[in-house]
């Protein structure tokens, strides 16, 4: 949760007044119930399961968890493939360096001379950060962030240095129920400090709060038994400097309203749960209907005969037996269920993958049109997520620069690439690439093929293959030519006289 305060309230970030902490925590606790409800609905603990049911074995209560479906489908759609990071200028600098030979220090393009900067590629080399990302499997962190913002509407990522002999920056995802991001109340909303707290338990099963306070240059650990009054004490030796250059917490938002993917359709989710539960309850009660007898009674032998043979003889003329049932229209209930499900997908901008009309024999282009609203949703998510991922990159870069492991890189030069799980119209793409051969460059055409990961590598392999084929052809041609040279040519006198 982000809270905006007057910077004058915290003139010294190393000695924050306890009244400020109390104010912030009380504000934060006002949102805990909402986040807890979102968490419960995602994990399947819906309100219908908490309803008290009379001692009736026929009453059924269960949920159809569309809250989880909405979050997981959206997450897989834009974060199913790991996020990629590259720098276009770094690629261009690397290409320029390869083109320069024999001490040439300039290149000519479109009539203009551009001096080669030998430090350019080094400045834009992001391989060290990518190594750090690989070491901690950053794609798993990204996926957890995407999941958290889908559930709660916001998420936080705490940066720290690991405890290895050669430390590296690391990240961990923090639930918004445990994090407070404090910003100033100016138009820029600059970060002041962050509070991360959670309930812990000691060996005596006595609970306490563990609190971490992070500012732009250090972190401190506190303990508290009474968080409401923030009666806390500093853990001795816990104060540590960090080298991230700012508050080492990254904030992510799902949207401007900080709402989760399914938060607005919770009432519809409740209605759907009620409808499905009542539907199954009615079915169960139908099977267990009460048998009513009019103008007659059955003794024990008659009941056994009825249960065994499924019929009874000798009813009185005015006697009657029938089941007491509640009549219900199955078709109307089914229509209502489908209407609610359709509205859930409409309000959450997701598609129903189980809909028979969704795929069928549709072409790739038709599927793209059907997924248009979902593309609108994930583009907004990617735009918001990109901002946080670049902020993480900037702080990792600062930490590694302080340690002398890489140069500073402007985050504007970084490209964050998301791979959307979009259906591919493979025949159309292949035909397009084939038809444009000779009109558009091979590198551009190859980049359109979905199965090619590294275009430069493919082009290099093609060149090698052609060179090998040419060498093989020349070797074969040379061998044949040598054989022809060794074959003697017949003299004129050996010719057939009849042909003359």
UniProtKB/TrEMBL annotation:
<dbReference type="Pfam" id="PF05133">
    <property type="entry name" value="SPP1_portal"/>
</dbReference>
<feature type="compositionally biased region" description="Basic and acidic residues">
    <location>
        <begin position="483"/>
        <end position="500"/>
    </location>
</feature>
<protein>
    <recommendedName>
        <fullName>Phage portal protein, SPP1 family</fullName>
    </recommendedName>
</protein>
<dbReference type="InterPro" id="IPR006428">
    <property type="entry name" value="Portal_SPP1-type"/>
</dbReference>
<dbReference type="InterPro" id="IPR021145">
    <property type="entry name" value="Portal_protein_SPP1_Gp6-like"/>
</dbReference>
<feature type="region of interest" description="Disordered">
    <location>
        <begin position="476"/>
        <end position="500"/>
    </location>
</feature>
């Amino acid at each position: 949760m982000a809270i905006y305060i007057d910077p004058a309230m915290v003139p010294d970030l190393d000695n924050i007044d306890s009244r400020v902490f109390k104010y912030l925590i009380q504000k934060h606790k006002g949102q805990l119930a909402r986040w807890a409800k979102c968490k419960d609905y995602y994990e399947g603990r819906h309100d219908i399961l908490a309803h008290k049911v009379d001692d009736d074995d026929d009453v059924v209560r269960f949920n159809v968890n569309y809250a989880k479906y909405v979050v997981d489908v959206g997450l897989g759609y834009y974060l199913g493939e790991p996020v990629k990071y590259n720098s276009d200028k770094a690629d261009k600098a690397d290409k320029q360096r390869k083109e320069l030979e024999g001490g040439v220090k300039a290149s000519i393009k479109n009539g203009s001379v551009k001096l080669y900067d030998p430090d350019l590629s080094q400045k834009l080399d992001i391989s060290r950060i990518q190594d750090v990302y690989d070491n901690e499997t950053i794609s798993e962190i990204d996926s957890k962030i995407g999941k958290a913002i889908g559930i709660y509407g916001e998420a936080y990522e705490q940066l720290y240095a690991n405890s290895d002999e050669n430390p590296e920056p690391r990240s961990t995802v923090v639930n918004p129920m445990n994090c407070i991001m404090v910003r100033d109340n100016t138009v820029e909303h600059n970060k002041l400090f962050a509070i991360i707290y959670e309930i812990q338990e000691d060996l005596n099963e006595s609970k306490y709060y563990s609190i971490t306070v992070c500012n732009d240059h250090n972190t401190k650990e506190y303990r508290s038994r009474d968080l409401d009054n923030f009666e806390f004490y500093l853990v001795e030796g816990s104060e540590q400097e960090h080298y991230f250059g700012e508050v080492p917490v990254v904030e992510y938002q799902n949207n401007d309203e900080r709402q989760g993917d399914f938060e607005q359709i919770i009432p519809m989710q409740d209605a759907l749960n009620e409808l499905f539960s009542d539907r199954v309850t009615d079915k169960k009660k139908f099977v267990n209907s009460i048998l009513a007898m009019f103008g007659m009674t059955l003794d024990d032998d008659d009941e056994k005969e009825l249960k065994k043979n499924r019929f009874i003889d000798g009813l009185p003329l005015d006697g009657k037996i029938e089941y007491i049932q509640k009549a219900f229209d199955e078709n109307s209930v089914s229509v209502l269920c489908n209407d609610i499900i359709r509205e859930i997908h409409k309000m959450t901008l997701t598609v129903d993958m189980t809909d028979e009309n969704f795929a069928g024999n549709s072409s790739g282009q038709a599927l793209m049109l059907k997924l248009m609203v979902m593309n609108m949703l994930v583009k907004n998510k990617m735009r918001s997520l990109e901002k946080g991922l670049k902020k993480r990159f900037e702080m990792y870069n600062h930490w590694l620069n302080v340690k002398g492991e890489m140069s500073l890189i402007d985050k504007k030069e970084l490209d964050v690439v998301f791979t959307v799980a979009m259906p591919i119209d493979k025949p159309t793409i292949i035909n397009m690439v084939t038809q444009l051969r000779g009109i558009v460059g091979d590198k551009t055409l190859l980049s359109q093929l979905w199965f090619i990961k590294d275009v430069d590598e493919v082009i290099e392999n093609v060149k090698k293959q052609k060179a090998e084929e040419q060498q093989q052809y020349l070797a074969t041609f040379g061998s044949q030519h040598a054989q022809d040279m060794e074959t003697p040519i017949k003299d004129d006198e050996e010719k057939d006289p009849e042909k003359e």
